[in-house]
Amino acid sequence: MRAIYVIPVIVAVLVTALSSVFIVDERKKALVLQFGQVRQIKEDAGLGFKMPFIQEVVYYEDRILGLQTAPIEVTLLSDRRLVVDAFARWRIVNLAAFRGAVAAGGEDRAQVLLNNILQQAIPEVLGKTTQDRVLSQDRTGLMNEIRDIARREAQALGVEVIDVRLTRTDLPEQNLAATFARMRAEREREAADEIARGGEAAQRVRAAADRTVVEETSFARRQAEVIRGEADAERNSILAEAYGQNPEFFAFIRSLNAYEVSLRGQNSSIVMQPDSQFFEYLRAPGEVGPIPEPAAAPAEGAAAPEPAEPAAPAEGQ
């Protein structure tokens, strides 16, 4: 009969003992609540104890959590509009403050509150800067400013914002066409400037080359004239020396050259007086006057004319 009473007692004791024990995973933190009030904070992994049936245990993440914000439009200092979103990393550092801020909402409610904080911090920082700074290396400094503002605001939630990164900084769809057209116009203007500068440089090089050609050509012609003059002078000197050695032979050679030049070709004609000095070397030795016409052939049955006695050779021939 005693077993009937002992067994329920043992079961009740075991249930009571199990209800007073809880286990905290190394990835979790725990709060012990009694009628909604925080009675115990358990941040270390292991066993914990609580009052059975009266207190309850609520677990929260001890790991670093991520948050992707919703895209928002931001007006920059230069009146440019950008669509911006960010990614933040955060963790719970104060369980009591976190429980008071999010109540029963837990991490999901904290994500919503942090998203609101970031969507206020991003326009506050980017609204004081220009697009060039947002798209340059100064972007890191801007993200650190957003992180510091969000970290201060998030202290009331019992969380720490570890880092914030801007993941997208795009133009609104309605501004893309105008921005691309403006960028294209700027690039075309830069290209036209480069082409104009290149044309100017090419013109300078071409002018310098033309001037060099004229100078070199003039110098070469002057040198050619000098060389030609020296050659003519040397030739005249040689001719004068040869003429001085044998004037008659020299005159004969010059006459032959003149005959060759003037009688060149099949239809050459010369109109001058027969007794001209030009024909001096075409006459027979000792002959003076025009060149005699060739004698006509004698008629049939007629006596041949007497041959003329040859003229005596001139003295010295």
Question: Would you tell me the structural class of the helices and strands?
Answer: alpha+beta
- Output mean pLDDT: 78
- Fraction of residues in helices? 40-55%
Overall strand count? 9
* Overall outline: rod-shaped
The separation of the N and C termini measures 188 Å
Oligomer kind:
single chain
- CATH homologous superfamily of the domain at 65-170, by name? Band 7 domain
What is the N-to-C order of secondary-structure elements (H for helix, E for strand)? HEEEEEEEEHHHHEHH
Q: Could you tell me the CATH topology label of the domain at 65-170.
A: Tetrahydropterin Synthase, Chain A
Sketch the major β-sheet: 4 strands, antiparallel
- Residue ranges: pLDDT <50 for 5 or more in a row? 290-317
CATH architecture annotation name of the domain at 65-170: 2-Layer Sandwich
The gyration radius over C-alpha positions equals 61 Å
**CATH hierarchy class name of the domain at 65-170:** Alpha Beta
Strand content: 15-25%
Number of helices: 7
